[in-house]
Amino acid sequence: MSDEKTDTRPEDRAGLAKDQQGADPAVEASVELTALIAENADMRDRLLCTMADMEKLRRRTEREKADTARYAISNFARDVLTVGDNLRRTVEHVPAEAAAQDPALKSFLDGVEITERELLNVLERHGVTRTEPLAQRFDPNCHQAMYEVQNPEVPEGTVIDVMQAGYVIGDRCLRPALVAVAKGAAKQTAPSQTSDSTPKAANDDFPASGPQGGREPPRNASHSGEPHPAGSNRGEPPRGNHPRGPYTKN
Prior knowledge:
4 helices, disordered C terminus, Nucleotide Exchange Factor Grpe, Chain A, domain 2, disordered N terminus, alpha+beta, 12% strand
């Protein structure tokens, strides 16, 4: 049987090559399109994250700018408060009777009070205000307790005395107020109920009914008051009264 030789004509080979070349660009275009879509989605996610970060940065920058403008004078205001405290001490240390008798002294005190009021107004215009903690609940964020006083008339933890005024700047504490806090009434202990029965014995040999517990101790007990026969051991019968008769030596 002879082998048949198939001879491909040049026209057929050219058509086959054209078909193969026409299929390859479509596949390549599809692959490139898929890659471009994935890259576009990735770039879109990155853009959204960047925009969100920039928005957060803008808000934080604005908040820090506002806080800087509001609390920039904190150190200066804290130092100025000492001046206000000294003005208040000056007014409080002058007796009212002396000021009433001396017109010059009264005018001087009026000038000091006006100066103190003006100082507080200036501080208030810059966001610094005085707190009034008297008769309020103790707040550890704005108050500093110096001592406690027992006072059953007010709830426990109430401020009953202010030794130094406190100040706040904005929503922050500039200087805590020095206060005294009510401790409340002392706890009363209930009286112990005592019975008429005799106290319990120290050891377990005697029950609670009495020191002897209704029983007599053994006659040969070590705490018995009876004398022991001479030459006998404590707690043992004398040798002459041995159950087996008198003891004799063989």
